[in-house]
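From the pipeline queue, job 12 of 40. The input is one protein chain; the requested action is below.

Action: predict structure.
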Amino acid sequence: MLITPEGLLSILVVGRTVTVKESALQTRRVIVLHSGGKDSTYAAWWAQMKGWDIAACCTVLVDSDDSMMFQTDSSWISGLQSSAMGCPWLPVVSAGEPESEVSDLLQALHSGVSSDAIEEWFDSRGLNSPEFVNGVEGYWDGIVVGALRSDYQKTRIERLSAKLGVSVHTPLWHHNGLRHMKDIISHGFEIMMVSVSSDGLDSSWLGRVLDHHSLEELISLSKLHRFHPDGEGGEFETLVLSGPHMNRKILLEGESLWDGRRGKWHIKNASMSV
C-alpha cells in the first residue's frame, strides 16, 4: 500500500491498481444532530453501521412552541436514547428564533454549554435531566443530519459546518418518503407518534406506536388527505423508543393534549428498561 504525495492510496487488487482517497479509509468521529425522532435516530444508526465513532448526540432544546430548524416536542428524550446508543449527550438551549438557533448550536459545538442553563431548562418543566456533557471532548470531523428534504435545514447546517471546518453527512437526503417509512419499521425501530397537526390525523394517533399495520393506515390517510407519509411537511412528529442500535428501551408515561384540530402527547415520566 503506497501513500502518494496527493494523499491517495494505491492498492493492488487482483492484479490491478485501485486508487482511492486516503480519507475514505479513515474512521470518522462525528456529531449527530439528534432530535429523538425517527430520522435523526436512523441517521445515528447509519453512522454506527459505518463504524464511525459518535463523539456526541447533540440536541437543541427549543425554549418555545415552534422552530423552523428543530423538533420541539419531547426532544429531551434524546438524552435517554443517547445513553441507550452508548453515546454522550450534548443538549443546547435555544430560544428557537430563526436568527439565533443556528448560532446557539454553533456556539455549543465550538465552546460547549452551560450546565446551569441546561438544568434550569429541565427544572422549569419539572423534569429530571438525563446525564449530559458540557462539550465535545477531543477531535471530531463531521456532522450527521437526518434531513430528508428540508433545504432550509440542510443549507444552514452546511454553513455552520463550513465555519467549524467539518464535513456534513445527510444519509437520508431525498430518500423516497414511503420507502423510508417502510424500511425503518422493517429494520426494527419502534416509533411513537408524539404530535399531529394535519387533516386526517386525529387524537387517536397520539402516543400510538407504528407497526406495519398502522403504517399502512397512515399511508392510506396520507393519500386521502394529501399529506407527506413521512411527516416531512410537519404533519406529525415522532420519538424512537427502541432500535437495533439501542441496548435499552425507552419507557414513557404521558397523556394526550388535543385542541380539536391538533395535539401532542405530553410526557409525564420517562425511563429506560433494565
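Job complete. The chain has a mean pLDDT of 88.
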